[in-house]
Design a protein that fits this description.
This protein is of the alpha+beta class. Helix content is 57%, strand content 9%.
């Protein structure tokens, strides 16, 4: 059975959503990242970068949430665009989440909520970039139901993970600035698989 190393953070939640959507059997292995569980020698054998999520699928180890989504989607043949010409779009938006949306949100949260030194420049810089990336998603969704069009794909799952903490990043009431993104987010969040994924973090 596939092993899923998990914490209730945005990146593991993407993978949890995929696993729940597909009904893939898995063994959940919680990692307490607040107590440094990701820095143990055993865990770093799986991911030298000391981050969750990680999956172990037989002899195959995959780390990085977007790599895991792509691996599982290709293995199962699910939640990929049916039109092969959309492969470029899929990879582009998946990397948009991996290199922009996720990192800027993560740094915005760190400097606002966890850093001892409330550095105004860092807070403004990362919050601005987080909002800019959410704005790009909002514009993308203005004329289509999903990020790649009509189909629900791993790109939506990847962006959903980082949309969960939007108000924690940008402030209470800021969903109103992103109406198309909010419509998309609420539709995905209402899916039974999303509800099950969220429940994992509450156990």
């Amino acid at each position: 059975m596939l092993k899923f190393y998990f914490s209730p953070a945005p990146n593991p939640m993407k993978v949890a959503l995929f696993l729940e959507e597909t009904g893939t059997p898995y063994e959940l292995i919680p990692i307490d990242t607040r107590r440094g569980g990701q820095h143990t020698a055993d865990f770093k054998l799986l991911n030298p970068n000391a981050k969750v999520p990680v999956i172990v699928d037989g002899a195959t180890v995959v780390f990085d949430s977007n790599a895991i989504l792509l691996y599982l989607a290709e293995k199962t043949g699910q939640f990929l665009p049916a039109d092969p010409t959309k492969r470029g779009e899929l990879l582009s938006w998946l990397m948009f989440v991996a290199t922009g949306l996720g990192p800027y949100n993560g740094q915005a949260v760190h400097f606002q909520h966890f850093a001892d030194d409330k550095n105004a420049y860092a807070i403004n810089r990362y919050t601005f970039e987080a909002a800019r990336h959410f704005g790009i998603l909002n514009e993308r969704l203005a004329d289509r139901p999903r990020l790649l069009g009509d189909a629900y794909t791993i790109v939506d799952m990847a962006a959903w993970g980082w949309s969960n903490p939007l108000e924690f990043v940008l402030g209470e009431g800021t969903w109103a600035d992103f109406p198309h993104l909010q419509r998309w987010y609420l539709e995905i969040s209402a899916r039974p698989a999303a509800e099950r994924a969220r429940a994992l973090g509450k156990n």
